[in-house]
Amino acid sequence: MLKGNNFLHDDDNERSERLVLLSANIDTHAVEIGVSGSLLTWAQGASDNWEDLRENALVQDGEMDEAYQHVQEKYAEAADLYAEAKGLLLAIIDRVQKNDDIRNRYGVEGEAPRTFGDLHEAIGQWKKTHDVLVAALDERVVSDTIVTNMVTLAGEMYDLMQTAITEKDEKSDAFTAKQTAFSIDTDDLRLVYHLARMTWGKDDSNLRLLGFVPASEVWTEGSGGEQPENWDDILTGFTVKEGPPGDVNVSVNLHPDADGIRIYVAEGPLGDDNQPEKPQEPVEPQVPQPYFLPISEGVRSWIWICAVKDGVEGPISGPLWVEPTL
After folding, report:
1. How far, CA to CA in Å, does 317 sit from each of 8, 11, 12, 255, 288?
2. DSSP state, 14?
3. CA atoms 46, 48, 49, 52: torsion sign
4. Cα 313 off chain centre by
5. Using one digit for the tens of pLDDT, what is the confidence trace for 124-179?
6. How many CA atoms lie within 13 A of 267 on its CB side?
7. Could you tell me which residues are beta bridge partners of residue 309?
8. Buried-exposed string 300-323: b where 16+ CB fall within 10 A, e elsewhere
9. In what order do the strands lie in the sheet with 291-292?
10. Can you give the residue ranges of every domain in the chain?
11. Deepest of 13, 158, 195, 238, by most Cβ within 10 A of its Cβ?
12. Can you give the pTM of this predicted structure?
């Protein structure tokens, strides 16, 4: 159920609910409230477009997860064979002559490789050493079949990783497309909302038909006082400027009645689309605008923003993520 008209704060389900109503009913009310041209065209197709983007993002997310699962399965298979072959090879080496040099040439001295890249490289080194020793008629080798099987698994593992990387890029593109549509739709929703308010008034029940909430039905939350009636008028948007660490900043379109903003920042690994939890405490942004953020090098930073009035936080907008450029 829709609780208010802070479009920046919509989750995916709320945005879907709004746009279904808007697209279904805009033709009936467009002339009355003054929606025409490209804005009308957008409203008519907004729900279908959003659902297509949302579905594609979910599909791409699932395909990426499946691709990485295949990598993990192949890695486990290759790692198991490598470990068994290593035990056999060390036994052969020790029976012929205990020799650390030959172990180092194979790359089997010390711990087993723990990552995809390390295992791929280790099998390649093993194959190279094996071929040299076989040509020299050296006994300190395992069978060609074992080495061939390891090389085959390493190749399959590499191919699966390339597929997974492609799927990750496609997921990122899908989520970017959805996020871009969300931002554009937010601006257009705000315009239709204000056109409807100008025609019907802020508490007219017709607002519900277009995916909006009449003023008397807007939910208020928080402590220390009542929130302003329409938070979308208080925080109407923000822009994140990416740059090197220390030069990532946020510019906010803020109503003059607002006291300021609060910004929350959480960090995660580069390229990781798994959203972390919003921190309990905000950062202390510098003033005046733009607000420079404490974004670290080598991490992806997630940003949440809200306006503040009379000590009360408005709904949280975001998160958006940034990765500092070098």
Report:
1. 6, 10, 13, 15, 20
2. H
3. positive
4. 25
5. 999 999 999 999 999 999 999 999 999 999 999 999 999 999 999 999 999 999 99
6. 9
7. 312
8. bbbbbbbbbbeebbbbbbbbebbb
9. 235-241, 249-254, 291-292
10. 1-219, 220-326
11. 238
12. 0.62
DSSP per position, 107-126: T-SSSPP-SHHHHHHHHHHH
What residues have CB less than 8 Å from 89, skipping those under 6 apart? 106, 108, 140, 141, 142
Measured on CA atoms in the order 326, 274, 79, 152, is the torsion positive or negative? negative
The model's pLDDT over 195-228, given as tens digits with 9 standing for 90+, comes to: 999 999 989 999 999 999 988 887 654 433 344 4
- Between CA 222 and CA 284, with CA 235 as vertex, the angle to 5 degrees is 70
The identity of residue 236, as a single letter, is T
As a whole number of angstroms, the distance between CA 306 and CA 252 comes to: 10
Q: From CA 78, how far away is CA 313, in angstroms rounded?
A: 53
Q: DSSP E strands: which ranges in the chain?
A: 235-241, 249-254, 260-269, 291-292, 299-309, 312-313, 317-322
DSSP output for 144-161: HHHHHHHHHHHHHHHHHH
Domain covering 220-326 in this structure, CATH number: 2.60.40.10
Task: Please state whether beta strands 249-254 and 291-292 pair in parallel, antiparallel, or not at all (unpaired).
Answer: antiparallel
Name the amino acid, one letter, at 267: E
The tokens for 187 are 């601006």
71/75 Cα distance (integer angstroms) = 6
Q: Which letter, b or e, does each residue of 216-240 get, where b requires 16 or more Cβ atoms within 10 Å of its Cβ?
A: eebeeeeeeeebbebbbbbbbbbeb
Which one-letter amino acid corresponds to residue 269? Answer: P
Beta bridge partners of 235: 254
Tokens 């002339």 sit at which residue?
Answer: 31
Give the side-chain half-sphere CA count within 13 A for 29: 21
Helices (H) and strands (E) in the chain, counts: 6, 7
Measured CA to CA, the distance from residue 133 to residue 140 in angstroms comes to 7
